[in-house]
Structures are given as C-alpha cells and as structure tokens.
Queue: 3 jobs
Job 1
Amino acid sequence: MLKYLLQRLAQIPITVVGIITVTFIILRIIPGDPVVAYLGDMATAESIATMREKFGLQEPLYLQYLDTLKGISKGNFGQSFVTGRSVTNEIFSILPNTIALAAASIVFSTVFGIMAGIISALRLNRVTDYLVMGVSILGVSMPIFWFGLLLLLLFSYKLNLFPIAGVATKTSWLAQLHALFLPSFALGFLFLALVARITRSSMAEVLHSDFVRTVRAKGASEGLIIYKHALRNAMIPIVTVIGLNIGVLLAGAVLTETVFARPGIGKLLVDSVLSKDYPLVQGIILLIGLIYLFVNLIVDLLYAYLDPRIKYR
C-alpha cells in the first residue's frame, strides 16, 4: 500500500505540469486581449503597451510559460490582472463558500442517493422502483442551470421562502443553512440521481448473490443483511461514482454559483475567464485539478478497505 501511495504521489507533479501547460495554451488561444479587456475599447496604444509590460505580456510566449512554471514551483501564482491582489488571496478569500456548497451537496446526494437506491433495489420492478428510477432519470436529464432557475422562480420569487441570490449576511449557522439550501439542492439533485442509480444496480446484484442467500437462510435479520453484508459489498461502485461526482460537482459549482449569484470559486472562474485574467484562471483550474487528483487517490485507497481481496503493488 505504501509503495502504491508513493507511486501515485510521484505522478502528481507530472499531472500538475500537464494542467498548467494545457491551461496556458488554451488561455492564449481564446480570442481577446486581457489588456483591452482591462482598459476598455477606448484605450490608447501607449496605455496598452504600458499595461502589457506591467502584466508581463510583452515577452515571448515561451518565456511567459517558463515564468509561470517557475512562479508556481515556488508557490507564487502571480497577481490578478483585475484587482492586483495575489491569486492565492483571491482564491482563499472565497474558497470557504464553495467548500460549504460542495460539502452540503455531497452529503445530501450521498445520504439520500444511497437510501433511494437501497429502497429501489429492495422493491425491484415494482411501483417504488419505477418511481425512484423515474425521478433519477429526471435528475440526470435536467441541466443544473435550468433546474436552479426553476427553484429560484418557485421558492424565491413566487413563495419568497429563500433568498434570491448571494450568501447570508447574518453569521448564525441557521441563516447560513437557509441561504445554502437552494443552491446545494440544485447542485446535489443531479448527483443524488447518479448515486441512486448505481446503488440500485449494485445492491440488486449483491442481494441476489449466493452468500446473501446463505446469510438469510441462517436467520439473520433483513436489516443486518442489508447494511452489514450487502451494502458493504456493493460499496465499491458507489464509492467510485461518488469520487467521480466530486470532480463533476466542482464543474457544476461554476453554473450553480453563477445562477444563484453566490460568491465562490465557480463564479470567480467565470468572471476571470470573461475578463481574461490569466493568473487567476490558471490558479483556479490548478486548484480544481489538485482536488480531483487527491479525491481519486483517496477513492482508490478506500477500495482496499472495502474489499480486503484488493491488493496494491
């Protein structure tokens, strides 16, 4: 296990360089000049040249790329073109908002998704199963931004039950949860549907396996069979889809935070792309990539815990 862990950790720097390289190339390919975006269309040639020198954009691309790699290797992600603040400060000042949104969505989708999948597997090909799978198909099919707008229209505009945008101005945890409910529900509903579908499939297969029939024949209670024997053996595909969901969830947070005008990494990424803020975009993309790498590493290590037959070399 230790050898496998060290091998995976050794691959991270290579992946980081790949993320930085791809992001750097894409940002330079997209149409538009960050200096013009910063100064406006009425900027003079002299002011544009001055700002290009200030941002370091007058250098050849290969030198800009090497400077970017050198800075990031030292923990310096540069300064935002728009605000002039360090990229690290820009990101970490609003990162707690995204962490709260992601954590609430993950807990909601995981708990209720697994419960719905178990219920569906126990009532296979019955009305309950069809109902759960129908809702799951609906959740998978609906775009997050469209579902979020529907929730805003109904619960915020029509019923006035939740704030339309932003985060809670009060510091109490109850007010924070109240403001977090709609965006986390909109983001988590898609992943709840995915977790429910994979849980149903995995649980249905395990519940019809020979060892479950043996345990049931010995007189074990149905609850013990489901939660101690069947669920643990069905967890590997469930953990896999949850790990993948976290990566997709970070992408979904971009749309969710934009629709709900909620300050966070997603909304900051959209704003920085629109303003051609190269250092900030690179910092956010790298952060998302690192989170995705470490989550997948944790998921891979959990496999050995859930199934002792799995050995890493």
Job 2
Amino acid sequence: MRIGLVSTLVERTPPHRYGGTERVVAALADGLVRRGHAVTLFATGDSATAAELVPVVERPLWHNLDYRGEPTWPVARQLAMVAARQADFDIIHSHQDHQFLPLLFGLDTLAITTLHSRLDLVEYRDVLAAYSFAPLVSISDAQRVHVRDLQLNWLATVHNGLDPAPYTYSEKPGDYLVFLGRMSPEKGPEAAVRIAIEAGMPLRMAAKVPESDRAYFESVVAPLLKLPSIEFTGEVTAREKAALLAGAYALIFPADWPEPFGLSLIEAMASGTPQVALRRGAIPEIVEDGVTGFVCDTIGKMAAAVPRVAALDRAASRRRFLERFTTDVMVDRHVSVYEQALSSEPLPRVAARQLWEKDRA
C-alpha cells in the first residue's frame, strides 16, 4: 500500500526526549516500511524515519519560538502539503487529532484519524460531533467512554506499540521507584513523592516541565525535590530512560485524569519493570492487575501495593509487552484497519454529504 502518515509538529518524530505520540508514529512508519509498504511521513524536518520524509517545519514547534504564539499556522501548511500529495496515496493516516479533520471535506483519497488525546473535554465533544462521518481510530477502548453517546464512526481500537530493541530487560529488581512523564498536575508528580515516602523507597523522577505548568512545578513540586530520597533528572534521552526503567523496582503512575493510554506503562513492561498505577481511564486496559503490576483505587493503596511488587514475576511484564504492545502487533492491527477501510469506507467528504442530505430530509 501507499500510505501517507501525518505526525504532529510539536515534537520531532521520534522525539529526542519527551514525546509519546511522535514515538508511536515513528515506530509505525518504520514498521510499515519493513513490511514493504511505501510510506510518506509529514513531520518536522529533523525527524528520523525509514519512510520518505516531507518536512513541514525545520524544527519542532515546542522548540521554535517563532511559532509559540501561532502554532496553527504550520499545521495549516501541513494540511495543504498533504492535500497536494493525496494522489500519491491509497490511504492517509493522520495523528494530528482534531486539527486534521477540516481537510476531510476536500480529499479524494480515503483518510482515517487516530485520536491520541483525552476526549472528556467539552471542546473535543463539540468538534467530534460536527465530524461524526470521520473514520476514527482510538488508542484504547476507555478513551471512547466520554463520547459514547455520540454517533461517531469508530473503525477500531489499536493500542500503541513500540520496538522492544531499545529497552533492556532486567529480571532483577532495583532499589528505587521511577516516575516518568511530565510535571503536570494531572500526572500526579506530588502523589508519586508521597507514595515513595510512604513506601520508604527512593524515587527518581525523569519528566518534562511544560511552560504551561511552570508555576505549578515551582510552587508544588520543586519544594518536594529537596527531600534527600527524591532525585529529579528532568527530561531524559531514550537510552537514559531505558537504563532508568531497567534498574527500577517499579514504575509509579499516579495520573489522575482520564488517561487515554499511558505509554510509559508499556515501556516499563518492555523492561520487565512492574507498574503501580491509579485506576483512571485506560489503566485497567493496559496494566494487568496482579500480573504486570497493580491497579489501585487510591494513592494510599498505591503506596500499600509497593511492597507486593516483589512477588511479581518480572518476566511476565516482558511477555505481555511482546504479546500485546510491540510495533509488529500495532502494525498488524493498522494494516487490517487500512484494508477494511479501503474495502468498505466511503470517502469522508461523500459520507459528510450523505449525512447532511439525510438530516435535511
């Protein structure tokens, strides 16, 4: 197949440090190329891919002050570039969330959209309701819960996948807990500190500090980093993260929001590192309670679960990753979705017109 992949522009594909969606898109692009598909990736100019790269901007928007104020301008350019190349593809697969949807009205090539964001916000509901004809893919079944009353065109759920090679499996547990992600209230970094203290274990925190959460970090989290058992390293490279996970006793995941997936959970699985997570969003769908880790209802129960991690078989986490969350598994599912869509889905612009005519009838 000839496939056009549309990545985000906020970060490199794959990112040097923090970035989930872009890491998944990079794995998908390379995995599809390995299968013999002709893949074109619309992404930042510094991206690294086995696919044909169409550079939309030179550098990621998160690192480019020229676009901090108007990040929609580069996206508009990206959509125009995709439209100009549409005849080169059998199918277009976007990971730009809702920003891609307006292009559907004018495409003569079938296009599907994977949504990576939380869908509980009012603005997402309003947009998706207006694009009920759009072919959509979710990254977890739980992601759809907040819009289940809308009549949306869901094609499938395809869990995120990653290549196992960069992750070092360790059958021997380390002596510290690890927190990965970003220093944002919904990710629960202060809760991670509380869990580590109650469990009596050191905590290593490797996380991005977004500018939008700088005040929160400095007022709430930074004072906690002065505790002798807490170590903060900031963002880490893929290699540094692999070493950090492989050497950890457990990953602490106290995210208190409707988590659509949780990529660090499967990164921990790939390392054989158990996960202790708060029951929110897709967590029970990803973490296998009592096998790869523990799914808990409160922060206090998370702390109480930490000692129980010692009884878990770290090899089970690695096996579950290989069975469920590798690039190959993800590519298999996506290729199946592509083939199904090409055989049965009308062009979105045609479906939109049919829907409007039905509403007016």
Job 3
Amino acid sequence: MKNVHIFFFILQFSLCGCTAVDVRPVPANQVIKAVSIVKNEKVAVDDFLDVLVAGFERHGIATKVIPEATDSANKYVVTYVAYRNWDMAPYLSNATINIEKDGEQIAHAEYHLKGGGGFSLMKWDSTKTKMDPVIDELLENFNSQP
C-alpha cells in the first residue's frame, strides 16, 4: 500500500509542471506613457514580441519596437529573451523581461517552466496564456499620470 502512495505522489509531482514566476514590478513612482521595445532577433518564440507589445498596450502604454538600444535618455526601454523547448511541438519554456530607465533597471520579470514542464499538458499553453499574467504583475503598479 505504501508503494501505491509513493507512486501517486511521484505521478502528481511530475504532472504539475511547476512554473516559477519571479517579478519585481514597476515602482508606483514611475510614470510610463510609452516604452521602446528592443527587438531580440535571436528569440525563436514566434509570437513572443506580439504578446509583449499587446501586454503593454493593454495597460495603456504605447509601444515602439526598435532594432537596437540607441539613445535611451529619459526613455523606458524594454529588453527580453525567450526560449522554447520541443516535445512533439515547440512551447515557451523560459522568458525574461527587463524595463530600464536611463540605463538603470527599474523592473524585471522571469517565467520558468521547471523541468521543461514534465508531463504537464499546460506546457503547451500559448505564449499569451503563459505571459499575460506575468506582464500584468510586472505592470501592476505602473502610473500613466504625472
């Protein structure tokens, strides 16, 4: 009987997928009307940039996608990386979003699918389903009014 309990514990643990999210949100004293998002050409998650842009715009923040970080004085600049794994189909496994102002990081978010998602079917959830809550938490304190 004890072996049955151990088996079900291991099965339940392997199916959970275990996602780790670590967010340091935008401080409430920051007034953000627009951000420049530096396009990361190395990211192979096809819809990641679209989800990122939509997430900022959903919060009332205008976005401009730029090819590289240029003069960032008095601007909010967003950089990101995203990685995918493959298990019968590609899926988002890790992502990091940073927001900087005047070259200083003011906010940071990380999404990590522990163990590559294990046997969990949630690992194949869309990029939007995975990242929208992370972006919402990242921007929960933002202020659009001076």
